[in-house]
Design brief:
The protein has 228 residues and is an alpha/beta fold. It has eleven helices and six strands. Helix 1 links the parallel strand 1 and strand 2.
Length: 228
């Protein structure tokens, strides 16, 4: 898929069975000026019909909607060769729903009580290739992703971080958003964003989720060394 260039709006398709919600979300997204709602669909079948003409860069879909649900749409998109990011936007904060969505091919899992600007930020990050999740779901995704212990091989890499960067990394592992970290540390939102960018570069990671997993693994490895 060709990613939109800097001066082009990101084309988004919204799929949700609640008319008022999807219309309201469309208005909120387009108010930012960086996103264009290319199509709106009330279910997965309608979404598949309008997909070729809409040519979205990102699809945002509800999880629980008739007749088949968001997981069925995800599987249809994958089977049909869609290679763009699909973000689930739902009220469910259940870990099993998160796992099912990711296994079906979602590149993000957002909650409907998120701030509109955080949804916009998630869309922009997804287009850049990141996996995005609502801050409240970060630890649950970490639990799902933890498998092999790679902490030992990256212990020396952690030394590249400044004290402030290590502090922010710890907050990332707790699922805090950039805004929440800024409030806790009494620094600006832009400063936090810059620190996160530096953390990812130094640790050779591609997303906040990977950074959170890394931090949790480091903590577990440290506890293991103290216990031995």
């Amino acid at each position: 898929m060709n990613l939109p260039v800097a001066d082009e709006a990101i084309r988004v398709m919204l799929v949700d069975d609640h008319t008022l919600f999807r219309k309201g979300l469309a208005e909120l997204l387009e108010q930012r000026g960086t996103i264009k709602v290319a199509a709106i669909a009330g279910n997965g079948d309608d979404a598949m019909r309008v997909l070729p003409e809409a040519k979205p860069d990102v699809i945002i879909t509800d999880l629980n909607m008739p007749p088949h649900g968001g997981l069925a749409l995800l599987r249809q998109l994958v089977a049909g060769g869609w290679n763009g990011p699909v973000l689930v936007l739902t009220v469910s904060d259940a870990e099993e729903d998160l796992a099912a969505a990711m296994q079906a091919g979602a590149k993000g899992y957002l909650l409907k009580d998120m701030e509109p600007e955080d949804v916009v930020d998630a869309v922009q990050r997804a287009v850049r290739g990141e996996t995005v999740v609502a801050p409240a779901m970060t630890l649950k995704l970490v639990n799902l992703l933890q498998g092999g212990n790679t902490a030992a091989s990256k212990t020396d890499t952690l030394k590249l971080l400044t004290a402030r960067e290590r502090e922010i990394l710890q907050h990332l592992s707790q699922g805090l958003s950039n805004k929440a970290i800024a409030r806790v540390l009494d620094i600006s939102h832009d400063t936090v964003k810059l620190h996160v960018k530096h953390i990812l570069a130094k640790l050779n990671l591609s997303s906040r989720v990977e950074a959170a997993v890394f931090a949790v693994e480091q903590k577990a490895a440290g506890q293991g060394r103290r216990a031995s």
